[in-house]
Amino acid sequence: MGSETVRKTVDAVDEEGERYLRALCDEHGVTVERIGVRTPDPVLLLALVGLLPVVSFVMERWHDRYLGGQIIDLRPGAEQLARRDRGLAYGYVIVHAVDGSVTVHVQELPNQTFEIVKAVVDAIGGMAGKGVQEIAQIARNQVGGQASVEIEDKGA
Known about the structure:
Layout: E1 5-11, H1 15-28, E2 31-38, E3 43-51, H2 52-67, E4 69-73, E5 82-85, E6 92-97, E7 100-106, H3 113-124, H4 132-143, E8 147-153
């Protein structure tokens, strides 16, 4: 039984992102179609066409290489609650708390990394002002052994 051919839509962000994604697709035999631009913030939309496991792999690598990890700042007065950081590898979530930081690292889990990171981010997004112990416990409950959770306490 062969793999199913799929068409997945991806936000390429900008022309640099489009070039990067096209190169990645070329490496793995996935076809790229430019769909258009989404507004009000101009974002290039691309469609990836290929075998399901290959397209899924390319999408994981796209996030891994290009978008970076997630940083969440729950400290009082934080300018931005959540942001992506290209300097932080995809699969990492760093949560800044009032008394330190919590680092969540999702091990290489093809097609699951996004869902695990999203579950962590959704679970801790409303925990402004909480400490690292409580945030780490919530993160551990969300990842269930599929990621490491480490605490860096300011007092340590």
